[in-house]
Specification:
This protein is α/β, with parallel strands linked by helices and about 325 residues long. An eight-stranded mixed sheet has the order 3-2-1-4-7-6-8-5, sandwiched between helices. Helix 3 links the parallel strand 2 and strand 3. Helix 9 crosses helix 10. It is globular, with a radius of gyration of 21 Å.
Length: about 325
C-alpha cells in the first residue's frame, strides 16, 4: 500500500508557479493560433497611407549630449511629409552639454527647442505637448532611434483602426556591445511576442517612452503624463485602460534603444520598472479583477504581479 506524504509549503508554491507559467503560455498560444492569419498579413503588408495628419514628437532630454544628435537625425529621416512633422526638443535642466547640442537645431524649420528647470521626464513631455497643436503626439527618449518607416507604419495602424487611441512600436536593443546588452536584445525580441498577444487581447499595460504615438484627444480627456513613481509610460497606459481607450501594438514599426551596459545599471533600471509597476497597481487596485475593465484587469495586471512574486521567490531560494 502506497503511503501519502503531506507536501511542504515550498512544493505547493513550486507547483502553483508551474501551473501559472503553463497557463499563461497556453493562453498566449491559443490567442496566437486564433489570430495567426492577422499576424501573417501584418508581417507582409506594406503601409499605404491615404491621410497624413500632423504629428509632433516630443524629445525630453536630461544629460543626453552623447545620443541626442542621433535621436534627432533619425526623426528627421522619417518617411513622413515634412510639413506634417514637428519635433520639440525639451532640455530638462541638463548639467552636461545637452543644451549646446540642441542649440545646433535652433534654425531648423521643423524643430522647436526649449529649456526648462529640471522637473522630471513627465514635466518635460507635458511642456512639449503644451507647445504643440498637432493631431497626434509622440514621445521619443533621447537615447533611442527610429527606423525611417516607423511613423508611417504606426499611423497606418491608426488609419486601419479608427477606435485606437495609442499605438506602441517594437523596441529593439541597438548595437549591443557586450554580453549584458546581447542578453537584453534576446529578451526584448522574445517580449515582442507577448506584446503582440496582449494587443490582440486589448490588454497592453505600458506605452513605452521610445516612440509610442497618441491621439491628442487622449491628453484632452484624461490629462497629461504624471510622475507615477518614475514610470509615467505605464501609468498613462493604466489610465487609458480604465477609461476604455484602446491601445494597439505595431510590431513592424521598429525603434532602437541603448541598453544598460553593466549589471548595476540593469539592476537599477529593472528595480525602477518593478517598483513603478507595483506602485501603479496599488494606485489602480480598485479596478483589478473588475470585468468591465477587460483583460487588462482580469489577466495582465494579476499576471504581472504573480510574475514579480515568482521572481522574488526564486531569488530568495537562490
Amino acid at each position: 500500500m502506497l503511503k501519502s506524504y503531506p507536501m511542504h509549503t515550498g512544493e505547493i508554491i513550486t507547483y502553483a508557479i508551474t501551473f501559472f507559467a503553463l497557463y499563461v503560455q497556453l493562453f498566449f498560444l491559443v490567442t496566437f493560433f486564433e489570430r495567426r492569419k492577422e499576424l501573417k498579413v501584418l508581417a507582409i503588408e506594406e503601409p499605404v497611407n491615404t491621410v497624413y495628419p500632423s504629428v509632433a514628437v516630443i524629445v525630453p532630454c536630461w544629460n543626453e549630449d552623447k545620443t541626442v544628435h542621433g535621436t534627432v537625425e533619425s526623426l528627421l529621416a522619417l518617411d513622413w511629409p515634412k510639413d506634417k512633422l514637428q519635433l520639440v526638443l525639451v532640455d530638462d535642466g541638463s548639467t552636461d552639454n545637452t543644451w549646446q547640442e540642441i542649440l545646433k537645431y535652433k534654425d531648423h524649420p521643423q524643430i522647436h527647442i526649449f529649456q526648462k528647470e529640471n522637473g522630471g521626464k513627465h514635466t518635460a513631455v507635458n511642456y512639449g505637448i503644451e507647445h504643440t497643436q498637432s493631431d497626434f503626439v509622440s514621445c521619443l527618449d533621447a537615447d533611442s532611434f527610429v527606423a525611417p518607416d516607423a511613423l508611417k507604419r504606426i499611423m497606418y495602424t491608426f488609419e486601419k483602426h479608427p477606435d485606437v487611441m495609442a499605438v506602441a512600436p517594437s523596441i529593439i536593443i541597438d548595437k549591443p556591445k557586450n554580453i549584458m546588452q546581447s542578453i537584453q536584445r534576446v529578451e526584448y525580441n522574445m517580449s515582442l511576442y507577448n506584446k503582440r498577444m496582449l494587443a490582440f487581447l486589448n490588454a497592453i499595460h505600458v506605452t513605452p517612452g521610445p516612440f509610442s504615438v497618441f491621439k491628442r484627444e487622449v491628453f484632452e480627456k484624461i490629462g497629461g503624463f504624471r510622475k507615477a513613481h518614475n514610470t509615467e509610460d505605464a501609468e498613462i497606459a493604466f489610465r487609458m485602460q480604465v477609461n476604455h481607450m484602446k491601445i494597439e501594438h505595431c510590431h513592424t514599426a521598429q525603434v532602437y534603444t541603448v541598453a544598460p551596459d553593466t549589471a548595476l545599471k540593469l539592476y537599477k533600471q529593472r528595480l525602477r520598472w518593478t517598483y513603478g509597476f507595483l506602485q501603479n497597481v496599488i494606485d489602480y487596485r480598485k479596478y483589478i479583477f473588475k470585468k468591465k475593465y477587460g483583460n487588462f484587469a482580469l489577466f495582465t495586471v494579476p499576471a504581472g504581479v504573480i510574475s514579480i512574486g515568482t521572481a522574488m521567490y526564486i531569488f530568495g531560494l537562490l
